[in-house]
Amino acid sequence: MQRRAIEFHDSDILFARFEGPDLRLRLCAYVHVSEGEPGRDSGTGWMQDLDFILHGAHVEVAAPEGKLALSHGRLTIGDRVLEGLVPLPFEGAGPVRLDLEGIG
User: In terms of CB atoms within 10 Å, which end of the chain has fewer, N or C?
Assistant: First the structure.
C-alpha cells in the first residue's frame, strides 16, 4: 500500500489569507509517496498545490507577501504532534497550532 505525506521542508507557501474567521494557507507542497514510511523510506515525490484551512484561526506572525520557501514545519492537534510531515489524506479536529519556518 502506498502512503503519502507532505514534507514541509521542500514546500512553499504561495499565499495566506483570511476568508471570514478561517485562514486559507495555499502550499505548493512536496508530496512524498512510499511503500514504507514517507520521508524516511525511498519512494517518489512531486509538487502539488493544496490548501490548509484553519477554522477560527489566529495568526501570531503574518507570512510575508509572495512565495516563501519553507525550511521546517510542525502541526499540533491536541496532544498529537506531526514534525516535518503531514500524512495525506489528512483531516483533524480540535485545537490546532501550525508552526512554519521560512528560508530567507
Answer: N
Question: In whole angstroms, what is the distance from residue 98 CA to residue 81 CA?
Answer: 10
pTM: 0.83
pLDDT in tens, 22-56: 999 999 999 999 987 877 778 889 999 999 898 88
Residues spanned by the domain of 85: 3-102
- Whether 7 and 99 have beta carbons less than 8 Å apart is answered as no
Q: Specify the number of domains making up the chain.
A: 1
100 near 73, Cβ under 8 Å? Answer: yes
Task: Find, among 11, 13, 17, 8, the residue nearest to 84 by Cα.
Answer: 8
